[in-house]
Amino acid sequence: MNIPFLDNWRRRHGTGYAETLTAAMQNDPQGVGELLAECELLRARAGREGLQLDDSPESLGALDQLPPRWRDDPEELPWLGNDAGLYLGTIIVRTVPGAVWDVWPGGQPVVRLVSGREINVVEAGLDWAVAGAPELSQVYAEAAEA
To answer: Which candidate, 44, 141, 128, 25, places its Cα nearest to that of 91?
Structure first.
């Protein structure tokens, strides 16, 4: 994941990516959440298909229904999957009470539910982009039930 402000912070403070993201999450969780929500590639590809992503749970179901044309581009596939996972995480954090962004020691952003369960949304997004399963709406539904 490439977040430019984190690169600048690392250079100034001499820390690694994981430490930088963890510190940023602690100091400005809302700001980092906004950056994670950008998902420019996913939004652009959905827009080409006539789908405007509105950060609602319903938009996940609409994404699940799109023809997977992105699979034709193996270079773009992991970036789109990453964006899909971050978009999923953004919706969970914004709509599931108590859900928050967290960072695993390796620097992987995850969503932690109030129950303590952690969802590796980026992995779910990559699985969805590559294989179509699990559906994003299904992962959301499971998170909302917890």
So the answer is: 141
Total residues belonging to the chain: 146
Name the pairing type of β-strands 100-103 and 109-112: antiparallel
- Residue 14 clears pLDDT 70, i.e. is over it: no
Strand order in the sheet with 109-112: 100-103, 109-112, 118-119
Q: Which of 16, 21, 19 is nearest to 5 (CA)?
A: 21
Distances (CA, A) of 35 to 86, 112, 142, 144: 10, 18, 25, 23
pLDDT of 49 above 50: yes
Q: Which residues contact 30 (CB under 8 A, 6 or more apart)?
A: none
Residues of 22-41 as b/e, b for ≥16 C-beta within 10 angstroms? bbbbeeeeeebbeebbebeb
Q: Which amino acid does the sequence have at 84?
A: A
**Which pLDDT band holds residue 5 (cuts at 50, 70, 90)?**
very low
Distance CA 118, CA 106 (A): 14
What kind and span of H or E run contains 20? helix 17-27
Dist CA 102 CA 99 (whole Å): 10
